[in-house]
Every structure is written in C-alpha cells, then in structure tokens.
Design goal:
seven-stranded parallel sheet, globular, oxidoreductase activity, NAD(P)-bd_dom_sf
C-alpha cells in the first residue's frame, strides 16, 4: 500500500515510535490523527507537523483502554480527512517487574492487547465493505522470544503477535492487510523503565535488550515500518537478528530456555556486583 493520500490513526503518537510514525506518514503524503493518553504530547507532535505540512495532522487525547474513545478517534479521522485507511495500534506499556499483581496485569493486557482488539472490532466491518484497510500492530521481539524481567510484557506482546496473525489469516484474502512490528531496543522512555525501576530484575530487563543488539532511533524504526507497509510485509523486524533467534528457539526449545536462564543469571550477577 502506498501511504500517499491515505488517512491514518497512530496511537501512542505523542512521542517515541508513534511520534516518528506520524511524522514519516505525513512526510510521505498521508494525513494523520495522532492519539495519545498525554494529549499535550500528541498536540505538540501535530503542531510541529502542521507547521511544515499545514492541515495534515490533528491531535486527540485518548485512552485506548476505552472503546468509546477509539470510536471517537475513528469518527474524528472521518470528519477531518475521510475514512481510516491505516490504523497503527502502537500505544504500549512495559508492565510490572516480575509477576506483578492483578491490577498490573489488567492494565498491561488492556493497553498491549485489548486495545488492538477494540480497534479491529470497530474498523474491520467498514474495511470489509470498502474492500481494503491496513492494521499495523506494535508488538515486540519479546512477542517472538521473551522478556527477561517482566511476565506481563512478554505475555501481552506474544498475544499481540497472535492477534495480528489471526487478523491476517482471517481477513487477508478480503482486502485487509496486516503487519506486526517486533523490534528489540528502541531509544524511548519505555526501554529505560526497567533500568529506572530500582529493582534488579527490572534493571536486567533493560540490559537484556540493550546488550542483545543495537538500540535504534524511533525515526529509523518508523522508516522501516513504512517500507514494510509499502511491501505489505507481515513481520517487521528492525533487528534482523531476531529472526535467527526465533529460529533457534523453534529448533530446540529446551536449549533456548536453558540459554535464556543462563543469560538472565549473568545479567543479575553483573548487577549484584556493582
């Protein structure tokens, strides 16, 4: 799909990967509704883009845990630009360190998974009528591998990958394209949340990512996402080495699990030794 002339919604668009996606989309000729729980952050991104490309971006403060708010985003896009062509389910949270409690899990599931499901429920019927639409879910390499330090993050990102797969299998032959973004380290506040948690397991969570491969800029990731959308490619891997890791996991699960336990032990030892 060429994004020029298309209408897009980007959640979590107030910064990080979402802000970079909004900018890349506008510069490629799209019109964008930028949504974020932090409405002021979304507005700042929209103002900067409209200064360069007038009338191409609007900002909405929205909680993707609320179906009514997602419906309002879709209605706002229709009113400002026209029907939604592309939806980037990008909002995400890191979740609790370790096992967390019920409240932690509820929030993490709501943002990292249920928000994708809510958006698809609202968009798919119209896309099927029109015969086209594009859903891009932001998951993580943790959704293919795992996340040391955070059960909730790992599980919800696995689920986000699974949901994107299901959408593609179910509707891919009816005009609905689907992509799933699975990066490792990207320089955003989310990456550093574990490091700043004051918990050894949280610090290990950050270091597990930053020592496994390059930490990319949000703009570099956004550029790769748009190239994948242009190719209508399902799996978007800004860190190509993730595919080799995923293949090794599938080839010998027990060996991979043992290796991850060893990796975690080394990380924790290095933290304890500081």
């Amino acid at each position: 799909m060429q994004v020029a002339g298309k209408n897009a919604i980007v959640t979590g668009g107030g910064g990080g990967i979402g802000g970079a996606l909004a900018a890349r989309l506008v510069r490629a000729g799209a019109r964008v509704v930028i949504a974020d729980l932090d409405g002021a952050a979304a507005e700042a991104v929209a103002v900067a883009l409209n200064a360069e490309f007038p009338g191409t971006a609007v900002a909405v403060g929205a909680d993707v845990c609320d179906s009514d708010r997602i419906a309002e985003l879709i209605a706002r896009c229709a009113a400002e630009f026209g029907p939604v062509d592309l939806y980037f389910a990008n909002a995400g949270v890191i979740g609790p360190v370790g096992l967390g409690d019920d409240k932690d899990w509820a929030v993490t599931l709501d943002v990292n998974l249920n928000a994708h499901i809510r958006a698809a429920r609202l968009l798919v019927p119209g896309w099927l009528e029109r015969g086209e639409g594009y859903f891009v879910g932001t998951a993580s390499a943790a959704g293919l591998l795992t996340q040391i330090g955070s059960a909730a993050y790992s599980v919800t990102k696995h689920a986000a990958v699974g949901f994107a797969e299901w959408l593609s299998v179910t509707y891919g032959d009816r005009g609905i394209r689907v992509s799933c973004l699975c990066p490792m380290g990207v320089e955003t506040p989310l990456l550093r949340a574990g490091e700043n948690s004051g918990d050894a397991l949280g610090v290990a969570a950050t270091r597990a990512v930053t020592t496994a491969g390059a930490v990319l800029s949000p703009d570099a990731v956004a550029e790769l996402v748009l190239a994948a959308v242009d190719d209508e490619r399902f799996l978007i891997l800004p860190h190509p080495e993730v595919l080799d890791m995923y293949r090794r996991k599938g080839a010998d699960y027990d060996r991979w699990l043992a290796g991850m336990r060893h990796y975690q032990a080394r990380l924790l030892e290095s933290i304890d030794g500081q």
